[in-house]
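Figure S7 source data.
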Amino acid sequence: MKILITGRQGQLGSELHDLKESYPQHQMVFVDREEMDLSNPEQILEVLNTEKPEIIVSAGAYTAVDKAESDQELCNAVNHIAVQTIGEWAAAHQAKVIHISTDYVFDGNSETPLKETDTPDPINVYGQTKLQGEQALQASGANNVIIRTAWVYSVYGANFVKTMLRLMNEREEIGVVADQVGTPTYARDLAQAIMTIVEAPVFVQGVYHYSNEGKISWHEFATAIKEIKGLHTKINAIGSDAFPTPAKRPHFSLLDKSKIKEVYQVAVPHWKTSLEEMLLKMR
Ligand SMILES: NC(=O)C1=CN([C@@H]2O[C@H](COP(=O)(O)OP(=O)(O)OC[C@H]3O[C@@H](n4cnc5c(N)ncnc54)[C@H](OP(=O)(O)O)[C@@H]3O)[C@@H](O)[C@H]2O)C=CC1
Ligand SMILES: Cc1cn([C@H]2C[C@H](O)[C@@H](COP(=O)(O)OP(=O)(O)O[C@H]3O[C@@H](C)C(=O)[C@@H](O)[C@H]3O)O2)c(=O)[nH]c1=O
Ligand SMILES: [Mg+2]
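Tokens for the predicted magnesium ion complex:
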């Protein structure tokens, strides 16, 4: 298969690139911002018409959650309009689309693990534009799989784990929110899950939830990073109101992974196992 992957320089794009050698049966073409500016629909179509992929993995996105609040137009162009453009091209050319979305499409008011059938209701601009991207892809008529994931980290790119490692080396004491719970996702595991879907004998269209296994707060996540690394920073558990940010974050974003496990038999490692693996690679 010829597979085109957007967001080459991002966490997920980089992890997919690392898997390239393991899939010699596929032609994996990666594009970054320079080759395909996702805020430029003409350029998206130009690249797709040249490359003619059979599968598009849509991993590129505007992911600066706080900045998005004051940069709505660009965020919408990348997270919504670009996905619509990709979907319409794919529908017209019988290509499949595997698109990545987020737990931030939910409002965080649930108390039970979020299922694909639960109603999204985003509480920030990033989540709103990601939901619009999902809806535009579904409306395009393209054969599509949407994977909603959460709290993604990797040795590549910017993420919470790397921020925590930096802060813990700089400070004696930090505060991390304890009233937002969910599950982190090692981008390498997500990349594997995507390749499992690519390889599946049947492409079953739909929305799927994927993160690592388990349930923790950001505070527990930070504490685990500290313990695994043997650091001594004091990590105070704080409420979201003590860490004001331009964008609101959902208090609960635990995803139910049963559907993707059943339909695609994907592996879902426990968050701690994957965190240990990532931190080993960071050294
Ligand atoms: N990170 C997370 O915690 C989560 C991410 N997701 C979703 O998973 C997917 C992958 O995320 P992740 O790899 O972590 O994100 P990253 O922010 O690491 O990577 C996103 C990539 O998109 C690229 N990009 C942004 N704007 C444009 C543009 N205008 N034109 C072209 N490329 C652009 C970035 O390019 P550049 O490097 O040049 O800036 C970057 O390479 C995204 O769809 C995201 O919404 C879902 C849940 C959690
Ligand atoms: C740096 C820092 C963050 N926090 C809080 C803020 C926030 O609630 C939480 C995580 O911080 P982040 O900046 O990593 O959060 P954020 O960028 O909102 O992460 C999100 O990114 C987008 C792209 C997604 O799709 C989501 O799944 C999620 O991963 O930790 C602290 O409490 N203390 C700190 O020192
Ligand atoms: Mg962030």
